[in-house]
Amino acid sequence: xxxxxxxxxxxxxxxxxxxxxxxxxxxxxxxxxxxxxxxxxxxxxxxxxxxxxxxxxxxxxxxxxxxxxxxxxxxxxxxxxxxxxxxxxxxxxxxxxxxxxxxxxxxxxxxxxxxxxxxxxxxxxxxxxxxxxxxxxxxxxxxxxxxxxxxxxxxxxxxxxxxxxxxxxxxxxxxxxxxxxxxxxxxxxxxxxxxxxxxxxxxxxxxxxxxxxxxxxxxxxxxxxxxxxxxxxxxxxxxxxxx
Length: 243
Ligand code: HPA
Known about the structure:
By secondary structure, the protein is an alpha/beta fold.
């Protein structure tokens, strides 16, 4: 079963055929919101808004462990994460979609692991390729058939937030080889891997990263790009779920 984790701009998904709302209590506490059990293209799926209903939770206060745990408990096997991001690479201008293939984690102080033992050993998951390649290819096919502007790979820099970066920080990320910057890919992707869930991300670039545009970053402009892109995000998700 597929789960969609909605990011900024996708806190609600009224186009889904909702079957039930399910509050889940996990050993790690509450998840961001009750799970929405719904149908998409006649398949049962789960929707979870990462920032909670009404976008109350900042990236560093999201209970990622509870979220992924609740999805696993609900029978989810595949997670499609939606993230709003800043563009660093020159091809990643606002309005572009990116299907990232790599992550560099700059977060700190977040609960990074379920701390499982595997056969008595610490569970050092293989995380060479953090995103599921099959799901990535499926996303690429959906974006192609939706005729949306996209980049089929990119290195996602996950910063701590909630503030946006300084211009010098973005230059450092650029030197590190990062193409896009957001605050929510980690530890979400690693926790999904620990639980054996397939995981991929559909990222929408909503601004040039700090210092890369002539003007300062404006939350108003970011929100406008975010709102303008949401119909396309949903179109891509529907096409993805059909495959
Ligand atoms: N930086 C970090 N996270 C973001 C950005 C950004 O510029 N835009 C959207 N999410």
